[in-house]
Design brief:
This protein has about 450 residues and is of the alpha+beta class. The protein contains 15 helices and 22 strands. β12 (about 270-280) and β13 (about 285-290) form a beta hairpin. Bound molecules: ligand MV4.
Length: about 450
């Protein structure tokens, strides 16, 4: 096992990793920017090294400085968390050159899955169901139009380097196709310097259901149930839950097995997520693979009983998975609400500032992952998510009731937050009946968009 791990992240995920390391008897090194000298991760780690100015590109994204800090502190491994360098294949290559273990998959795999049209092609060849569409990438509008006519409208035009909705357009008909293709493509060129596009049939009002997988270096792969992440606003997830209330035990089994097959097809290692679109008829399609631990991993931890961060560290150190598929039982229902420092009345603008008063709820079946504290000043340079509330109970209704009462107890003063909006979502009749799709927020709260 590793003796010392450097955590190349900040916020609640850095805290989460520090705590697991402490449980496992592993020393921790935090890295921090000049804006984070009073941050909790800087204080909680065994050692902390300042790696540069506030701007992410000068600190948390600065590969040379992070590797220098790793070598100087004699850490043997880096946990990247999510965001920042977690899916940067160049960084993984640099780690390898420095003989530092990257807690995650290989550089090759990150690159392969980061290229969405290549990932799609790989999955088609592995017999994984994908949305009907192109197998080869397209670069040229006229050629794309011919392909679109074969697929049938509406079609979704997607950038190969995309994600988070960037470089993505729906085309309703032949007439609007060229304009949409050109807009999506130039967005992709501007954002990613890549004009590679692909097409899919547009799936109407789907659910976003993703399956957590975990793989070791010996080819063992398990699935740990699914998460329904349909409740999003502008591609930012707000509520995640496990299990998904729209799928039968039989479908769960099928999606889980499909996710394992997808992971095995690429020789995956460490934690990963297979994203599916689930349509109204119960058909599901591979969309993307995320090659990192995700923000919403706690809901899976709670229903599966597996500590995913601990498992990531174990498999990176060369240990086999600590659980086999038949030992994994999904129990009860877990829900996560993301609490952001933002102004819901002003188009959810980020709202940094000082926390003047905070009361963090607790109790049976309540978990709070956060890195904020009373008097803490939220810097304006990073993500606005400041807390994740996760609840667990025997069934979905009890979990919703628990989340509503937990949010009712939560007090954060000094900065604007989305707590009231989360409270509204949880009390929504359609949410409560499980009638949710990726369009839930725009359809129910259109004035907020
Ligand atoms: C789709 C889709 C419908 N049909 N693909 C949005 C982000 C990107 N990762 C993929 N996305 C979508 N792809 C086809 N063929 C609908 C979406 C989509 C979406 C997906 C997941 C969660 C929220 C979403 C919100 C709008 C659109």
């Amino acid at each position: 096992m590793f003796h010392k791990i450097l955590i190349a992240n900040r916020g609640e995920i850095a805290i989460r990793i520090i705590r697991v390391c402490r449980e496992m008897g592993i020393q921790t090194v935090a890295v921090y920017s000049e804006a984070d000298k009073d941050a909790l991760h800087t204080q909680l780690a065994d050692e902390a090294i300042c790696i540069g100015p506030a701007a992410s590109k000068d600190s948390y994204l600065n590969m040379e400085r992070i590797l220098s800090a790793t070598i100087a502190s004699h850490a043997e491994a880096i946990h990247p968390g999510f965001g920042f360098l977690s899916e940067n294949s160049k960084f993984v290559e640099m780690c390898q050159k420095c003989h530092v273990a990257f807690i995650g998959p290989s550089a090759d795999l990150i690159q392969k899955m980061g290229n969405k049209s290549e990932a799609r092609k790989t999955m088609i060849e592995a017999g994984i169901p994908v949305v009907p569409g192109t197998k080869e990438p397209v670069h040229e509008a006229q050629e794309a139009l011919e392909k679109a006519k074969e697929i049938g409208f509406p079609v979704m035009i997607k950038a190969s380097s995309g994600g988070g909705g960037k470089g993505m357009r729906v085309s309703e008909s032949e007439e609007d196709f060229m304009d949409n293709f050109n807009m999506a493509q130039s967005e992709s060129v501007n954002a990613f310097a890549d004009d590679t596009m692909y097409l899919e049939r547009y799936v109407q009002r789907p659910r976003h259901v993703e399956v957590q997988i975990m793989a070791d270096k010996f080819g063992n792969v398990v699935h740990l149930g699914e998460r329904d992440c349909s409740i999003q606003r502008r591609h930012q997830k707000m509520i995640e839950e496990s299990p998904c209330c729209a799928i039968s035990e039989e479908l769960r089994q099928k999606m889980g097995e499909t996710a394992v097959r997808a992971a095995k097809a690429v020789g995956y290692e460490n934690a990963g997520t297979i994203e599916f679109l689930l349509d109204k008829s119960g058909e599901f399609f591979f969309m993307e693979m995320n090659t990192r631990i995700q923000v919403e991993h706690p809901v899976t931890e709670w229903v599966s009983g597996v500590d995913l961060i601990k498992e990531q560290i174990r498999v990176a150190a060369g240990m086999p998975l600590s659980v086999s598929q038949d030992e994994i039982q999904i129990t009860g229902h877990a829900i996560e609400c993301r609490i952001n420092a933002e102004d819901a009345d002003r188009h959810f603008m980020p709202c940094p500032g000082t926390i003047e008063n905070i009361h963090i709820p607790g109790g049976n079946g309540v978990r709070v992952d956060t890195a904020v504290y009373n008097g803490y000043t939220i810097p304006p340079y990073y993500d606005s998510m400041i807390m994740k509330i996760i609840v667990h109970d025997r069934d979905r209704k009890s979990a919703i009731d628990k989340m509503i009462s937990t949010l009712g107890e939560l007090v954060i003063e000094g900065v604007k937050t989305n707590i009231d909006f989360q409270y509204e979502l949880l009390n929504n009749e359609d949410f409560q009946s499980g009638d949710i799709t990726t369009h839930f927020i725009p359809e129910h709260y259109e004035d907020m968009e």
